[in-house]
Design goal:
The protein has a single domain, classed as HIT-like (HIT family, subunit A, 2-Layer Sandwich). It is built from three helices and five strands; from the N terminus they run αβββαββα. It has helices spanning 4-10, 54-75, 122-135, and strands at 17-20, 24-28, 38-42, 79-83, 98-103. It has a five-stranded antiparallel beta sheet, with helices on one face. A hairpin with a 3-residue loop joins strand 1 and strand 2 (24-28). The structure holds guanosine-5'-monophosphate (5GP) and zinc ion.
């Protein structure tokens, strides 16, 4: 298995383990984009969000709030982002993972949610909704 996260879970590659249970492994991202940057991964190899089954998703996301609260207590961030990169937007490891990124006043993590509400009419939302619902 040439998956780097599977090797970390197996202990073949060292990691700074934050948390572990039967189904989930969490460890410090080697690149601390912000202080406390933690990755939470299923022990089962799943490529990305598109392939995540219900049980595995439950296992992973059940582990997230306690770790988030530990990061909150440890570093007193101004908040936290939970990020998953699936495919083109920067998925560099093909083993599903969520990033927990504590946020700080002066960090350089550039995530921008521009409010473009004024440029959308009701029909735009309905057209988008229709496309999604056709595919659910
Ligand atoms: P992605 O870009 O796929 O969303 O995130 C992959 C993350 O894995 C990156 O933030 C990268 O720093 C981290 N990473 C890659 N290789 C290793 C490793 O060997 N050990 C640890 N702890 N993190 C890694
Ligand atoms: Zn893997």
């Amino acid at each position: 298995m040439d998956c780097i996260f599977c090797q970390i879970i197996a202990g073949d590659i060292p990691s700074y383990k934050v948390y572990e249970d039967d189904h989930v492994y969490a460890f410090l991202d080697i690149s601390q984009v912000t202080e406390g940057h933690t990755l939470v991964v299923p022990k089962q190899h799943v490529k990305n969000l598109y392939d995540l089954d219900e049980k595995t998703a439950t296992h992973v996301f059940r582990a997230v709030p306690p770790i988030a609260n530990a990061l909150k207590r440890a570093f007193a961030p101004i908040g936290l982002n939970l990020i998953n990169n699936t495919e083109r937007p920067h998925q560099s490891v093909d083993h599903f993972h969520v990033h927990l990124l504590p946020r700080y006043e002066q960090d350089d993590l550039g995530i921008r949610f521009t409010n473009n509400q004024a440029s959308h009419e009701q029909e735009d939302y309905l057209a988008i909704l229709e496309k999604i619902k056709e595919n659910l």
